[in-house]
Design brief:
Blueprint: H1 3-6, E1 9-10, E2 16-19, E3 23-28, E4 33-39, E5 72-75, E6 78-81, E7 94-99, E8 102-108, H2 111-114, E9 122-130, E10 133-141, E11 148-150, E12 152-153, E13 157-159, E14 171-175, E15 205-207, E16 218-220, E17 227-232, E18 236-241, E19 247-251, E20 258-265, E21 284-286, E22 291-303
Antiparallel strand pairs: 1-2, 2-3, 3-4, 5-6, 7-8, 8-9, 9-10, 10-22, 11-21, 12-20, 13-20, 14-15, 14-17, 16-19, 17-18, 18-22, 19-20
């Protein structure tokens, strides 16, 4: 057993630690949020939540992604309020099971959630590590009697620069396919702006610079790729796969030491949106007794 694998278990803070031959991953039951990803060389790969920039590390976005017009939404004739990105990120998940290299957490509906989201649900998040790879699979199950509408998103903040020796200015995102379609950005109110912008991707390469994020995230809602590589051009980086997630946000605060690579199912309300939540672009519906999975994989130390 490697030293990394021996690190698996429960931390003093109540977090769950899982490990493989290449990674030690720490997850908090609060939000089922990643806290640290450390490789076998002791390098921290995940943002540390420095409050000078952003206290998040890798929140899970549910039952909405992004913000709502006026902070509220309408569904089945009634109106409710939700904060940006929903309530999963601030909810305590139950630790269902964990082993040396995996952990599964669960959030279910409660009086508090039904007051703002009137549906029965069960959201399971499974983290698994193998070698240099971390898999995250969210399973949304509908135990209720009515069709369950929802969006879901991952939001991990990877180091920028990554700790492989290259400078911040050397980092790029290389998509699996060319991405020439216009991209979206957000209004000052956090909604999807009506007018798209020209793609900043040249062929399949996005050269990272702070000016891209002067307003907020760069949002791809016409994405051809379902995978990408992030790292220093010609160097070492992270392979990211999100086979079933149709949308992608890439975000940082200018000057911060992280880059969020965020596969989404759904996004913020279009500016001025007044329709029913079920009809909102990107919302999926889960039939009673059914389930829907959302998955993301990251493999670290991958050469360009």
């Amino acid at each position: 057993m490697t030293a990394a694998e021996q690190a698996a278990g429960q931390s003093d803070a109540g977090d769950v630690v899982i490990a493989s031959s290449g990674l030690v991953v720490t997850i908090s039951p609060d939000g089922a949020e990643l806290q640290r990803i450390v490789d076998d060389a002791g390098r921290d790969l995940l943002w540390d939540g420095d409050p000078a920039f952003w206290t998040g590390r890798a929140p899970l976005l549910f039952p909405i992604v992004g913000g709502l017009e006026g902070g509220t939404y309408r569904v089945d004739g009634a109106r409710y309020a939700l904060p940006k990105h929903g309530f999963a990120r601030t909810s305590r998940f139950e630790t269902m099971e964990c082993g040396a290299d995996f952990a599964r957490f669960r959030l279910t509906d409660s009086d508090a959630t039904r007051a703002v989201y009137p549906f029965a649900f069960m959201l399971d998040i499974l983290f698994t590590v193998a070698g240099d790879r971390l898999d995250m699979v969210a399973t949304l199950t509908n135990p209720g009697k009515v069709v369950l509408p929802a969006s879901f998103g991952f939001h991990p903040a990877l180091r920028w620069p990554l700790p492989y020796g290259a400078g911040r200015a050397d980092h790029v995102v290389r998509f699996d396919r060319p991405e020439p379609e216009p991209v979206r950005t957000v209004t000052p109110a956090g909604l999807i702006a009506a007018e798209p912008l020209s793609s900043p991707v040249e062929g399949n390469l996005l050269v990272l610079r702070d000016e891209l994020f002067a307003v907020d995230a760069v949002i791809f809602d016409r994405l051809q790729s379902r995978g990408l590589w992030y790292g220093s051009a010609g160097g070492t980086g992270v392979r990211v796969d999100f086979e079933d997630m149709p949308d992608l946000g890439i975000w940082t605060k200018p000057g911060a030491g992280y880059l969020c690579i965020e596969p989404w199912q759904g996004m913020a309300d279009p500016d001025g949106y007044a329709g029913d939540f079920r009809e909102k672009p990107g919302v999926v519906e889960v039939a009673p007794g059914g389930s829907r999975q959302f998955a993301m994989r990251m493999e670290f130390g991958v050469r360009a």
